[in-house]
Amino acid sequence: MGAGFAPPAKNMYKLTWDCALEATAQKWADTCLWKHSDRSVRNGSGENLFMQGGGRPTNSDLLKSAASGWWGELTKFGIPTNDVTLTSALFQSGVGHFTQMAWATTKSIGCGVSKCKGGQTAHVVCHYGPSGNWINQPIYEIGSSCKKNSDCMGDSSACSVDEGLCIWK
């Protein structure tokens, strides 16, 4: 694994906010349980968890810390330079949160934040739809960022050339 590195993605979707995913994430965050929810609780969506103790950070700061930590797994562990298949070994290397964020077919996200134990800890839960992180499946297609609509997946997506990301129509 090359720490800090991931090959470029050809077919990465720009995530959009989903209020239904936000609602399921907030409901789970409010339980203050430090474990993944059952897939049925989140309607089959993917899930990332983050917990922080101490201080009184704002919800915005907590969300930023969670996203930075999850994406930061790439910096720590990297992923292979020529194969972005999510193997068991790659997942166990510590990039599971990153790969859920970068999963090519994931189109939407919703997050919830809850202060737990009288404010001593904060839980951040994000739900992703559709779910990713399927073992032995590609995280995304390696290649230059999209330049035209046909670089994206299917007739229901278009390329935002300026962003180099696919947009779900």
From TrEMBL:
GO terms for cellular component: extracellular region. Residues 1-136 form the SCP domain. CDD domains: CAP_euk. It comes from Plectus sambesii. This is SCP domain-containing protein. It holds the Pfam family CAP.
